[in-house]
């Protein structure tokens, strides 16, 4: 019998549409998990590196250290260096992102999409010490997304209440299906979280969008994907932007901060029920 630690659970975020809160929600999820005593390894696969910038916070600037593209190199190359992991805090470590990730998305060498999974096992120091690996991806359906889907246990999608919301989730489903069928049978889509909603109201104890236009899109999303796929509704709130973009869990005593942390925590809890 072996006493090997289990491999950490891998959670990825993906929505084909840009600017909907992928980096914000995955940063907040990791902060939430770390406050629950879980050890988190973040991987930033976005060339804009918003996750990295969030975690490095407004005040503290860490040295820029990234060899993230090595996660996509031949896993059997014995000369390859270990992946550089930055320590943000005891419970939060980060594989930093940078603009070099775009070359991965431009490459037509398909072996790179399976390399990520093997390199996580083989090249990341002390990988078994983490409880969760959280991966941020850029908008669109590039190689970094495919690579993430191949190694993830769970994927979720933030969405805003735009008329393209349903179409955008459909685009993702098109990629998810073949991956689930062949390349990663364990992959599960946890659902969607509606983010950046201008005004929310409580109806029968549930937070729903206030404006009629937003409410109509909300209803059509729930009808299309079912109530179980709805991971929550999060308002467009300054305390979310301010806290998360400086690598901190949402704080503040005013109503907006309290609503923000309630909505965000609710999303984190719902998502973690799926894994
Ligand atoms: N609930 C929210 N309340 C206020 N601001 C938010 C909220 N969610 C996200 N934002 C802000 O909206 C902007 C876009 O969010 P974010 O960078 O997380 O989106 P993204 O989907 O990762 O974008 P991209 O497609 O460029 O990677 C950021 O400035 C972020 O701070
Ligand atoms: Mg982003």
Automatic annotation (TrEMBL):
Residues annotated as transmembrane: none
CDD domains for the chain: ParAB_family
Gene3D superfamilies: P-loop containing nucleotide triphosphate hydrolases
Highest taxon, organism lineage: Bacteria
Pfam families in alphabetical order: AAA_31 (PF13614)
AAA domain ranges (all copies): 9-188
Name listed for the protein in its UniProt record: AAA family ATPase
């Amino acid at each position: 019998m072996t006493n090997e630690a289990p491999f950490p659970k891998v959670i990825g975020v993906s929505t084909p549409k840009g600017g909907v809160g992928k980096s914000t929600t995955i940063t907040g999820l990791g902060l939430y998990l770390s406050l629950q005593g879980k050890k988190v390894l973040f991987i930033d696969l976005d060339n804009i590196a918003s996750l990295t910038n969030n975690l490095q916070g407004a005040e503290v600037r860490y040295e820029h250290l990234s060899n993230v593209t090595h996660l996509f190199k031949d896993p059997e190359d014995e000369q390859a260096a270990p992946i550089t992991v930055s320590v943000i805090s005891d419970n939060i470590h980060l594989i930093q992102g940078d603009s070099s990730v775009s070359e991965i998305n431009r490459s037509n060498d398909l072996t790179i999409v399976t390399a990520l999974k093997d390199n996580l096992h083989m090249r990341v120091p002390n990988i078994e010490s983490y409880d969760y690996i959280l991966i941020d991806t850029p908008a669109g359906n590039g190689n970094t997304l495919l690579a993430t889907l191949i190694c993830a246990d769970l994927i979720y999608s933030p969405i805003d209440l735009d008329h393209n919301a349903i179409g955008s989730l459909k685009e993702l489903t098109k990629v998810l299906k073949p991956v689930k069928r062949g390349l990663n049978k364990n992959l599960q889509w946890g659902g969607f979280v509606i983010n950046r909603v201008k005004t929310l109201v409580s109806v029968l104890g549930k937070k729903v969008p206030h404006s009629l236009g937003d409410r109509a899109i909300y209803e059509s999303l729930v009808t299309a994907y079912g109530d179980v796929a709805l991971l929550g509704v999060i308002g467009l709130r300054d305390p979310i932007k301010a806290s998360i973009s400086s690598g901190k869990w949402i704080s503040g005593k005013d109503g907006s901060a309290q609503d923000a942390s309630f909505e965000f925590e609710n999303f984190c809890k719902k998502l973690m029920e799926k894994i």
